[in-house]
Amino acid sequence: MIEAVRLTKRYGKKPAVDDVSFTVRPGRITGFLGPNGAGKSTTLRMLLGLDHPDDGTALIAGQRYRDLRHPLRTVGALLDGAGPVPERRGIDHLVWMAQSNRIPRRRAHEVLELVGLTGAARQRVKGYSLGMGQRLGIAAALLGDPEILVLDEPVNGLDPDGIRWVRNFLREYAASGRTVLLSSHLMAETAGTADDAIVIAGGRIVAHGSLDDISAGHESLESAFFALTAERGGRGGW
Q: InterPro entries recorded for this chain (predicted)?
């Protein structure tokens, strides 16, 4: 389970995240939605120990990320801008990550096959297309066979077949009792993939519940999103 308890992060006098609390339950896919500048990335960074909250607590499986003994075995993450060294080969990037968490080397080959990158394993990352880079990032997130996945825009750059594979994989992953937190700008994709949603705007949570509950009274998840974020001064765009 993922828990955020009254998380607050300020840059100067302005809070980027203001008293944010939510729970992401096992066995379900939870979409994390919000306009640009709403606080999504800052919240994810605090969950994963990359930013320190000014107030509040972020817990992964009941612990702060920094207290996890082998974090990749507990939580796998894909964050925008957190890519590998461009000159490194794809397989070398994964083997290095595996060694840092005492994961068998063979697992690097297994996840490359899982995401369809076996043929590009020895190619340098700087030669990867956007979609290939995204597949490598997903492979890295899966490396430790974790109980929890935190994914930021996982289908960005993927072709339709890749998007379908991610959607089906995440459904099977959650159905096995694991936890998925999925940040996305794609309303239709989120509506077709997630069970629950957290909506953030202006650094505060404006909705948290099942997709059916959040969409109730609106034509779609997208229309509910714009109505909710407009109430908090959302800019109505991405």
A: AAA+_ATPase, ABC_transporter-like_ATP-bd, P-loop_NTPase
**Residue type at 96?**
W
Asked if residues 198 and 36 have their Cβ atoms less than 8 Å apart, the reply is no
Angle in degrees, CA 152, 157, 163, rounded to 5: 80
Q: Tokens at residue 15, please?
A: 């809070």
Determine the Cα–Cα distance for residues 228 and 138; give it in Å rounded to an integer: 31
Q: Are strands 55-60 and 196-201 parallel, antiparallel or unpaired?
A: unpaired
pTM of the predicted model as reported, rounded to 2 decimal places: 0.91
Q: What DSSP element (H or E) covers 84? A: none
Classify domain 1-61+148-238 at the CATH topology level: Rossmann fold (3.40.50)
Which range scores top for mean pLDDT: 53-62, 80-89, 225-234? 53-62
User: How many CA atoms lie within 13 Å of 221's alpha carbon, on the beta-carbon side?
Assistant: 26
Closest CA to 30 of 216, 203, 217, 209: 209
Angstrom distance (rounded) from CA 225 to CA 22: 18
Domain ranges of the chain: 1-61+148-238, 81-146
Cα angle 30, 195, 70 (rounded to 5 degrees) comes to 35
121, pLDDT greater than 60 = yes
25 neighbors 38 (Cβ within 8 angstroms): no
